[in-house]
């Protein structure tokens, strides 16, 4: 079984590509989904976050106000570092647990770990390949502003907070250009899937 890390800049289209891969039969481990589960009220991560950032980041039901917290951490590298130090080890542990679970399943040829900060969080050692989703800077900015209802400055801050594309390219096994139409992207994903399944089968044959 091949374990792929799917990463890319914010608003590059990772969710769309992971959806195509799920439709093809891949098992998807989404770091953002894990992060949301890990910060449910009164969980260990929730307690650490509230202890550091204060109860004012909670809503009336005790849930984290994700937009408020997001705005805070993207304005301060120090605050962002604290949040990452709380969440990243827990996300990594859960990801490893899920990879081991899926590796017991004989009918799954590919496990995809979707993580915006795959490289920054040092999760590269748990995957066999890294697939990097890329789009132009202009399109990324446009999509991010539209998706999250951000000003140009806010969107630029969020993009700047991530590892530059040129650095990410050094880690990439394969690159998916998501600047075209959805159908063009779907065909690229299908081609990658077919190659990955072949690689997975040959990997099992050697083991």
Structural account:
With 207 residues, the protein is of the alpha/beta class. The protein has a single domain, classed as Rossmann fold, CATH 3.40.50.300. Helices cover 57% and strands 13% of the residues. It contains nine helices and five strands; from the N terminus they run βαβααααββαααβα. It has helices at residues 14-24, 31-38, 44-53, 66-75, 77-103, 137-148, 152-160, 165-169, 182-206; strands spanning 2-8, 27-30, 110-114, 129-134, 174-177. Strands 2-3-1-4-5 form a five-stranded parallel beta sheet, with helices on both faces. It is globular and about 55 Å long. The chain starts with a strand and ends with a helix.
Would you summarize the structure shown here?
This protein has 207 residues and is α/β, with parallel strands linked by helices. Helix content is 57%, strand content 13%.
- The fourth-level CATH homologous superfamily is P-loop containing nucleotide triphosphate hydrolases
Number of domains: 1
CATH topology: Rossmann fold
CATH class bucket: Alpha Beta
Strand order of the largest sheet: 2-3-1-4-5
Unreliable stretches (pLDDT < 50, length at least 5) are: none
Order of helices and strands: EHEHHHHEEHHHEH
Rg on CA atoms, Å: 18 Å
Spatial gap, N to C terminus: 10 Å
Q: Which strand-content bin applies to the residues?
A: 5-15%
Q: What's the architecture, going by CATH?
A: 3-Layer(aba) Sandwich
The chain-level structural class is alpha/beta
Helix amount: 55-70%
Count of alpha and pi helical runs:
9
Count of distinct strands: 5
Biggest beta-sheet profile: 5 strands, parallel
